[in-house]
Specification:
The complex is a heterodimer of chains A (367) and B (653). With 367 residues, chain A is mainly alpha-helical. Chain A has one domain. Chain A has 15 helices and three strands. The longest helix of chain A has 34 residues. Chain B is built from 27 helices and 23 strands. In chain B, β11 and β12 form a beta hairpin. Classes of the chains: A mainly alpha (367), B alpha+beta (653). Chains A and B meet through α5, α6, α8, α11 and α13 of A and α1, α2, α3 and α4 of B.
Chain lengths: 367, 653
């Protein structure tokens, strides 16, 4: 083995041993698209772009670290992470910082942190761990406990109020329930009962968003303004787009939140339909790789977790693109790997790291 | 708990039944199918937005991005016939407030006062404008800021959102009150103006403009003076800030006007009238060009430029002297004896009189009403003028001659004849709101007293009405312009041209000059001997008659007629009484044209409450003729007043 004799390749091998090359490649590609788009969205300012570049560096490190943690260690972290997340959510309830009427943030020494971001990951982790624990003897009772494990944090988040994240947490948990083969009857029943329930508990501004989504032209300057301007941005992009740094909707500030939740409109405006297809393809390849990893995962825990992560990634992408292109109501969901923001990027890199860990540790397990 | 989890994990390999794995995989790839479906839906949506509806969103994005900003054209200037500028533009800084963007207007103004000098007058004017025109985004609070004030405000600008400094073009009237009624003034566009502009489909042309002509030539030539709006296509951001200019269609400067007015003549007329109320109209008979048109008292159009304040407005609008009234075209005065040459010509034409036919004037004329009551119409001269023919009747202004003539002439025939000279009709001068005057006839009286307040006896035409109308009193009342215009007809032997104030329009875009062509409006033909008889009599007025003293030693020939008219009210039967009484409040009139051989100028002078026409009005005409025909400017400013004093016991008519 020449490679073993050579110290360089050996070190390289040590570093890349737990990196899934296809997944890494696709993530890097999407990150590259994100950088290009974010640069335009923030231009002429570069300060936040450089900050995001640092975040990306940090994200790559986190991917590497998490990828090197064996799935069984990750499983061990499930319960503590869930409990910490819950404690923090309760802390938000009492000591949280209020921004824009929602109490979502915890401040620790000038650093702001959204516990709901942690819980988005902790819930599927917890459930995967829980079903793994009762593997082979899963009863309806276990599903009930799992539902409570989902409901508690979702309820706390909804109280902040942050319906969007509450729904995403619920969805991430339900993905695990679904993959754990929750009977179809229950799934149907749940859908029938929860949809009106959600409506009942929704705040007025949340309902307004739904109305605005159903008819954005009716109220072009208020609730529907975001959606309308985003549609104009994407639509005016046409087949090939207006070109990088040339989106008028973006650069003349007609498009709100154009570096965070609505960054996809910047992309759509500047790179057009062709660009959108390329990006959709990249996401699709990412999801496909995640599904394959889930498909090949050796244990119930890793299967459920990888599958849930794949479905979560899909949900974020669909909800964000659907919201920006006007087919879903406005919910504060960033576009994975592209929207500006450190917290979201870090939790995404943990997801990717988990997928890589599952993929690269299975040989060791099967050995 | 942790150790438990570890145990279960390690035993998981055992429990990994193929059944379980197959079930999981089914669900996993079903989810994968859903993902594919989701992406198909997104693709469809992108296709719809970016391919199907691209054009629509492209347009909306352009509409977002591009704003069309109007650029107001520069208003045309106005000069007199010699090219002396009567109206100019100057650029000045103004402090403007957008009331919609200011929360507490009073507080803002108060705070501004700490930085800039803002007088109570400025504030009153600001509030007045706010009430008048709600359609404006911004209204000026202070005008004509100095550079230092501009700099001082710039320092504190951040404290005043909605307050801005703008460079604006202002109207400058360098001769102030001179020719003020001719020029008129401009003012901010109000709701009524907007209505009118909308009706005329001209509102778009005024998008960047906030002033419009309100009176005078500024009003009647508004469409020429205003010019054509320009546009700037700018890229704006979401806050409406212009980012860059995309294209520019420059505005077209408004046309400049060259008036027919001769400024020195105009100023002389105004100087001569100064201290009195009255009007002077001087017309070039061969063209209808108005050489001077004075109306006193006047006003300073400059007061209206930044929006007039309430105090000045009240002073101008509510004054007894009515300085805003253009007496030359709006003031109605009985023509008095100045009507006599026309009535004489009428009698010659109708055959009621010959030039040599004479009457005996015993000092009065008497009629008996059907009820047997006698009315006596007196002559000015006690004991009468003796034997009077037409010539003497005009030269000495003998009333009895005309009482008799009126007694024999049907008023409707008189009215028909006088109408040919433009009496009772608008002359068609290029100013708005010209009065048509009152040319009495049976039909007119019936119409005038048709209201329910009047009875039949008010509406009937009496002989007495005819008699007083016969010497230019009674219901007769005309504008000084009408008198001057009718005089041009005598000067031209039956012809007249439409009186006008604009000699030429200089196109703002091309610089080409378009001259106003004289427009013949009257063309009457009278037998030469009739015209000669009237002219000779009018010449003798100034040589031997009522105008003799004033026209002494005039080196040119002139044909004039003095007149004195009672100030009377048109209230039914009371006028008979006032007819006999003569007060100092009579109006003085004089009409003249010169030189007789080839008339170059026709003048009508009216001095309200000036007394006898020969004393108050004729001297003004003399000075104007001296200047216009000889180039002689009078040295003595108080010429008129001196003359009036000299002649305290002078002339009778």
């Amino acid at each position: 083995m020449q490679a073993l004799q050579d110290k360089g390749p050996f070190l390289w091998n040590r570093i890349t041993r737990h990196i899934d090359a296809p997944l890494m490649a696709i993530v890097l590609l999407i990150l590259a698209v994100g950088c290009v788009t974010l640069f335009s969205a923030l231009a002429p300012e570069t300060y936040r772009f450089l900050r995001q570049a640092k975040n990306i560096g940090l994200a790559l490190v986190i991917i590497w670290i998490v990828a090197n943690i064996p799935p069984q260690r990750i499983a061990q972290a499930a319960v503590p992470l869930y409990l910490i997340g819950m404690v923090l959510l309760v802390a938000v309830e009492f000591f949280g910082i209020t921004v824009n009427g929602s109490q979502r943030w915890l401040g620790v020494g000038g650093f702001r942190f959204q516990p709901s971001e942690l819980i988005k990951l902790a819930v599927p982790l917890m459930l995967a761990w829980y079903f793994q624990r009762f593997e082979g003897r899963i009863h309806w009772f276990n599903f009930l406990v799992a539902m409570i494990l989902i409901f508690l944090p979702a309820y706390l988040i909804r109280r902040q109020p942050d319906l969007g994240t509450a729904l995403l947490v619920t969805v991430s948990g339900c993905c695990v329930l679904y993959l754990a083969r929750l009977p179809w009857k229950v799934i149907l029943l749940a859908i029938i009962t929860t949809v009106p329930l959600i409506w009942f508990f929704a705040h007025d501004y949340q309902k307004q968003r739904v109305f605005a989504f159903l008819n954005p032209d009716a109220d072009p300057l208020a609730s529907g303004y975001h959606t309308l301007q985003a549609s104009i941005a994407i639509g005016s992009g046409g087949l090939y787009g207006k070109g990088w740094l040339s989106g008028t909707q973006t650069h003349l500030d007609f498009l709100p939140e154009h570096h965070t939740d609505f960054i996809f409109a910047v992309y759509g405006e500047e790179f057009g339909f062709v660009g959108n297809m390329v990006l959709l393809f990249l996401y699709f390849v990412l999801l496909l790789r995640a599904l394959i990893i889930a498909n090949n995962a050796p244990s119930l825990f890793s299967r459920l977790l990888a599958g849930a992560v794949a479905m979560m990634l899909f949900t974020y992408t669909l909800v964000n693109m659907g919201m920006v292109s006007g087919i879903l109501p406005v919910v504060g969901v960033p576009l994975p790997f592209i929207s500006y923001g450190g917290t979201a990027l870090i939790s995404l890199s943990i997801c990717i790291g988990i997928l890589m860990s599952i993929q690269t540790h299975k040989k060791l397990v099967s050995e | 708990m942790l150790s438990g989890s570890r145990r279960h994990y390690y035993s998981s390999a055992v429990k990994n039944t193929p059944q379980e794995i197959a079930g999981f995989k089914r669900r996993l790839w079903l989810a994968g199918l859903c993902m594919l479906l989701g992406f198909v839906v997104l693709t469809a949506r992108f296709y719809y937005l970016q391919i199907v509806s691209h054009q629509k969103y492209q347009t909306q994005a352009e509409n977002n991005r591009i704003a069309i900003l109007p650029i107001a054209p520069t208003r045309g200037i106005i000069t007199d016939r010699n090219g002396t500028a009567l109206v100019q533009n100057f650029s000045a800084y103004t402090l403007e407030i957008s009331p919609a963007q200011v929360e507490d207007l009073e507080k803002t103004i108060h705070e501004l006062q700490e930085i800039l000098e803002i007088t109570p007058r400025d504030i009153r004017r600001f509030h007045r404008m706010r009430e008048e025109s709600r359609n404006f985004d911004t209204l000026p609070l202070r005008t004509r800021l100095t550079d230092e004030e501009v700099a001082r405000f710039a320092v504190y600008k951040y404290r005043f959102p909605g307050v801005d400094i703008q460079a604006r073009l202002y109207r400058n009237y360098p001769y102030q009150e001179s020719a003020s009624h001719i020029l008129g003034y401009i003012g901010r566009i109000n709701d009524r103006d907007i209505e009118r502009l909308t009706e005329n489909n001209n509102i778009l042309n005024y998008r960047g403009t906030d002033h419009i002509g309100k009176t005078g030539v500024e009003l009647s030539y508004e469409s020429s003076l205003h010019g054509l709006i320009g546009f700037e296509e700018v890229e704006v951001d979401a806050l409406g800030r212009a980012v860059r200019i995309l294209s520019r269609v420059p505005p077209v400067v408004g046309d400049s006007l060259r008036l027919t007015i001769d400024l020195p003549l105009q100023q002389l007329a105004e100087k001569m009238l100064d201290g009195h109320k009255g009007a002077v109209v001087a017309i070039e008979p061969t063209t209808g060009e108005i050489l001077a048109m004075a109306s006193l008292p006047g006003f300073d159009p400059g007061l209206f430029v930044d929006g007039i304040d309430t105090a000045n407005w009240d002073r101008l609008n509510n004054s007894e002297d009515k300085p805003l009234l253009n007496r030359a075209i709006r003031g109605l005065y009985p023509p008095g004896s100045t009507i006599k040459p026309f009535l004489s010509l009428g009698s010659l034409v109708s055959g009621k009189r010959t030039a040599t036919q004479a009457i005996d004037d015993i000092g009065y004329f008497e009629i008996t009403s059907p009820g047997g009551k006698k009315y006596r119409f007196r002559d000015d001269k006690i004991g009468g003028h003796g034997r009077v023919d037409m010539h003497k009747a005009i030269v000495e202004s003998c009333d009895t001659y005309y009482y008799l003539l009126a007694n024999e002439t049907d008023i409707d025939d008189t009215a028909r004849f006088l109408a040919q000279f433009g009496f009772g009709k608008k002359t068609g001068i290029d100013l708005e709101n010209e009065s048509r005057g009152v040319l009495p006839s049976r039909a007119w009286k019936r119409e005038r007293f048709s209201g329910p307040r009047y009875r039949e006896e008010h509406r009937r035409w009496y002989l007495g009405d005819s008699i007083s109308a016969g010497i230019g009193q009674g219901y007769n009342s005309f504008t000084p312009l009408q008198l001057a215009y009718a005089t041009t007809i005598l000067a031209n032997n039956g012809k007249a041209f439409r009186p006008h104030l604009v000699k030429s329009i200089i196109d703002g875009a091309s610089g080409e000059t378009r001259d106003t062509e004289p427009e013949e409006t009257v063309s009457l033909s009278f037998p030469k001997n009739h015209l000669d008889a009237i002219r000779n009599a009018m010449v003798d007025v100034n040589l031997k008659g009522t105008g003799m003293r004033i026209f002494k030693d005039a080196p040119y020939t002139s044909a004039g007629k003095t007149g004195t008219s009672q100030v009377f009210s048109l209230r039914g039967d009371r006028y008979h009484e006032s007819l006999v009484k003569k007060h100092l409040r009579d109006h003085a009139l004089f009409t003249v044209y010169a030189p007789v051989e080839k008339p170059k100028i026709a003048i009508a002078v009216l001095v309200e409450n000036g007394g006898f026409g020969a004393r108050a009005a004729a001297p003004i005409a003399r000075k104007l003729l001296d200047y216009y025909l000889l180039g002689k400017m009078p040295v003595d400013n108080d010429a008129l007043n001196t003359m009036i004093r000299d002649d305290e016991n002078g002339w009778d008519e």
